[in-house]
């Protein structure tokens, strides 16, 4: 088996202090130190999970089941607290392609359209999984028939949700529980296509949509040293080495307690050059024990810059797939539990994330070849009552770059903002987060999302984007109504 840096090399240090110092230093060289460094710890505590996560450039999502959308408190809580969603069942192969090449989009569309209307992110779950398969996938199929059914399924579903889904669980739960490192679960896919079905699925997914994050998602890969984790780690490392497209690993995190090396585990995956997302979090228990476990999970994610978001597997205990364990953040009457408060506090305590990357990496990971020195656009003095915007290059690579834009309020609070700039040399945005863009030729206009339009006097918020072309830091203007 290939090498596996357990306690030795994989873990990254928590980033708060060192990263803050680095950021301040880089900006100081550019003469804009006071604009951002002074505001890093100054975010007012947000009062909802989504808004709190957004302060560090992350999302906080929930699984949603279409069957509960007639519960008005369920929908109101979703809208108020979360800025990302995963369909609990509606995008799975059986529900969405019940007959071959005949798709039933209605329930998944209900969830996705609502989310998009609310400015939320959408995680796609899941394209290839041994469970919840339609009955027409069966052992009578030949390998080539199954391969073409799989490719068609991936292509059609990804095309349907192109531009709406930011990350797909391309393959779900392919590894064995227990057993030797790297062994796969027996399924129709291994039987007909062999272990290479995972790679085939990821390649088909990249061909279907080059602009979406492609994730491998599994449970019981939370312990850095577990055999199952080691198998997934080795696969990701191998994929990266051979250029098989993979952008993220999803740690489902259904447990009663995070393992003590949970943060190390997140960090060792991130060190391979993939994002990590906590995708189906639910923690059995109650009271302070449960709250403490949730806090440790949240802190672990916040400590690793490539841990880009957390999704809990449902809103309320009453609809949880493991309701007997009362594993969620709201009780059966939608009261916030102690665990809710510990998560909110941990999200609010996070330092801004300098490298969230919700879109697919265009050709290779930006972190693989970071630009030598980040650059920033000239700072503009905030007008009294107005706002200013500064564009900073976070990363660049052949043919693309990633930027962060800091929007700062002047001497009065801002309620809604619009940032504009003009590209100097044909650049184009491939993906943008924490803002809404409209483009006209080389002119770009970005307005706030519902959750980050309000900035306290002197405070700031950020949005980010990846773009094609040569890294540029044009001067940006900011206006507020
Ligand atoms: O919709 C039908 C309904 O028409 C029928 O009358 C009823 C009878 O049993 O079944 C309903 O479907 C159920 C579906 O949930 C919707 O409620 C399925 O039986 C049931 O098996 C299915 O369970 C889902 C489970 O995945 C299937 O494996 C859970 O809701 C869902 O939370 C769970 O989610 C999985 C993730 O996708 C992957 N990781 C583990 C996670 C928890 O098991």
Number of strands: 19
Largest beta-sheet characterization: 8 strands, parallel, barrel
Query: Helix tally?
Result: 13
- What small molecules does the structure contain? ligand G3I
**Straight-line distance between termini:** 60 Å
DSSP strand content = 15-25%
Which class best fits the helix and strand makeup?
alpha/beta
Main β-sheet, spatial strand arrangement: 1-2-3-4-5-6-8-9
Low-confidence stretches: 1-42, 358-374
Radius of gyration: 22 Å
* Percentage of residues in helical conformation: 25-40%
What gross morphology would you assign? globular
Overall pLDDT confidence: 86
Give keywords.
binds ligand G3I; 481 residues; four-stranded antiparallel sheet; disordered N terminus; alpha/beta; 13 helices
Describe the structure.
The protein has 481 residues and is of the alpha/beta class. Helices cover 29% and strands 23% of the residues. It contains 13 helices and 19 strands. The strands form four sheets. It has an eight-stranded parallel barrel with strand order 1-2-3-4-5-6-8-9, surrounded by five helices. A four-stranded antiparallel sheet has the order 10-11-18-14, with no helix packed on it. Helix 11 links the parallel strand 7 and strand 8. 50% of the residues are buried. The N terminus is likely disordered. The protein binds ligand G3I. Ligand G3I binds next to loops.
